[in-house]
């Protein structure tokens, strides 16, 4: 790894606007490595992750064209904690390997990592092999989070209760505040969020 390279993790619970914040950071010219994208691309036929998952769960999870059917896989692990643990371990190991690989290969002095559930994973003693300098949390109050998710569910013709149940599987947003280095408030407009991020970058000596 390049000496004095800074690695900053961006995280945030569902409904807090993390994706918007990541897009703003990208617009400032910074490299952002997306952990969800690593997983998505990792399910490509005959990739390392694809082979490990199919070895563990068999051909019953495959579509006719050989691609992994995420819905079938989800149904298998949904009510089976042991199988869910196996899947999570496979995926986590792969993501960790790819994150470290991309960090080491990148020559930028500052790199951001988009990892939605890093705090949940840290609580389970995961990501200990991932070296980073700081975690920045995109934050809104629980009431704002719930209201945003409710509106989004209705717009997408989904059951609001199903979407809100996702919150229960994550660490409460207010608890996350004490687990991170910086908290970026996102209860205002996109432009206000842009200003806050820009100000934080300047404070950290990496903005313009």
Give a written overview of the molecule:
With 208 residues, this protein is an alpha/beta fold. It has 2 domains: 1-30 and 110-208, Rossmann fold (3-Layer(aba) Sandwich); 37-107, P-loop containing nucleotide triphosphate hydrolases (Rossmann fold, 3-Layer(aba) Sandwich). The chain is 52% helix and 12% strand. The chain has 10 helices and 5 strands; from the N terminus they run E-H-E-H-H-H-H-E-H-E-H-H-H-E-H. It has helices spanning 18-27, 35-42, 48-57, 70-78, 81-105, 118-123, 142-155, 160-168, 173-176, 190-203, and strands spanning 6-11, 31-34, 110-114, 134-139, 182-185. Strands 2-3-1-4-5 form a 5-stranded parallel sheet, sandwiched between helices. Helix 7 (142-155) runs antiparallel to helix 8. The longest helix is centred in the middle third of the chain and has 25 residues, at 81-105. The protein is globular, with a radius of gyration of 18 Å.
Number of strands: 5
Average pLDDT metric = 91
Could you say what the CATH topology of the largest domain is called? Rossmann fold
| Count of alpha and pi helical runs | 10
CATH class of the largest domain: Alpha Beta
Spatial ordering of strands, largest sheet: 2-3-1-4-5
List SSEs in N-to-C order.
EHEHHHHEHEHHHEH
Largest sheet: 5 strands, parallel
List the uncertain runs. none
Query: Judging by the overall fold, what is the CATH architecture of the largest domain?
Result: 3-Layer(aba) Sandwich
Structural class: alpha/beta
